[in-house]
Amino acid sequence: MATPVYSGAARTPQRGRPRDASRDDALRQAALEVMAEVGYRALTMDAVAARARAGKATIYRRWESKLDLVIDTCTQLAQQNLTEPDTGSLAGDLREFLSAFAAFLSGPIGKAAQALVGELPHEPELASAFRETFLTAQRGVLRRILERAEERGELRQDAPRGMAVEIAGAALIYRLMLTGDPLDLPFVDRVVDQVLVPLVAKGQ
Amino acid sequence: MATPVYSGAARTPQRGRPRDASRDDALRQAALEVMAEVGYRALTMDAVAARARAGKATIYRRWESKLDLVIDTCTQLAQQNLTEPDTGSLAGDLREFLSAFAAFLSGPIGKAAQALVGELPHEPELASAFRETFLTAQRGVLRRILERAEERGELRQDAPRGMAVEIAGAALIYRLMLTGDPLDLPFVDRVVDQVLVPLVAKGQ
């Protein structure tokens, strides 16, 4: 059974009036499109408002800054697109999560994700928020996949779990950002079967 | 014995007059500083000329575009900083090359490297030139390290070499671009000993 991965946007201020969820989604979609086109640094609340045909005040009632808007957009998108798998095997869980993550990165969201990741080194506040939300959540799913594998007796005693979690993320992001090779299912299968499972599982 | 890794800048046009190598280095240094500050997209030949206290014509005599200048700068810097190791063992060669590469990325060049990598998704021509020069050369070194290991009988028959080459680069770039964790010797040791050597070597 799949359960939601991401716990929602703790950074989003909750105000007294009821929120219109579909309006919020339209504003996030606009933020995503603007970010894919111009990147994080050049994104303005004005441009997002114009794209969504909304007033700037409407946006500021929901998010107090562009940092809040962008981090909330990432978190919500991840929550909608990535679920925590529980297939009953280490290889099955890794395959399901990483193929969903690969599809997420190489789909329409990919351009915005690339723009965001590319700007992390220049934007310390964005980098810190991105690490606390998106990256921490993604690592959490991978850690829980490994914990369940251990409960089933699948892991070696000395399995380097932290390294497995890091390499899983690294393999996907490197293709997205550097090599440009396809982030497809055959690649995910090779990462799981050749690298991750032998790295941590017993009797390989 | 260490031999140079990178074969120099094939893209740099050679003109009839003799080149002043130290002047070229000063111009490349200026390009690096400007790129670290403003990124590739916002870099102009004017800004590089001003930084190096040179005329714009001086730069254009050496490089026909900012793409040529930036790719040549990357290639020359890599040539000066990264050598191809031959320590006599797979683990030794990987450790020597990856620790030099980690130091290269986390040193003063790191900011410019981050700026460059961050912009690859938005700059197809830059991405293509970067892959043909820098990335191809880095993969070439790793492939030759694996070939020498095979000649010494260190590799498994079915060693997934392409995956090992990809994971080696991915592990370092992921730290540089995403997690912000240190690219230090203990990390390189863990990547070599926990991931790369078990992935391809016999009897692990």
Global outline of chain A: elongated
- The strand order across the widest sheet of chain A is 1-2
The end-to-end distance of chain A, rounded to whole angstroms, is 28 Å
Q: CATH-wise, what's the superfamily of the largest domain in chain A?
A: Tetracycline Repressor, domain 2
β-strand amount of chain A: under 5%
Please provide the ordered H/E string of secondary-structure elements of chain A.
Answer: EHHHHEHHHHH
The total number of structural domains of chain A is 2
CATH class of the largest domain in chain A: Mainly Alpha
Number of DSSP helical runs of chain A: 9
Mean pLDDT of chain A: 87
Helical residue percent band of chain A: 55-70%
Write a brief caption for the model.
Chain A contains nine helices and two strands.
Structural write-up:
Chain A is built from nine helices and two strands. With 204 residues, the first copy, chain A, is mostly helical. Chain A folds into two domains: 48 residues, Arc Repressor Mutant, subunit A, CATH 1.10.10; 119 residues, Tetracycline Repressor, domain 2 (Orthogonal Bundle), CATH 1.10.357. Chain A has a two-stranded antiparallel sheet. In chain A, α5 runs antiparallel to α7, α5 packs parallel to α8 and α7 crosses α8. Chain A is elongated. The first copy, chain A, starts with a strand and ends with a helix. The N terminus of chain A is likely disordered. Chains A and B meet through α6, α7, α8 and α9 of A and α6, α7, α8 and α9 of B.
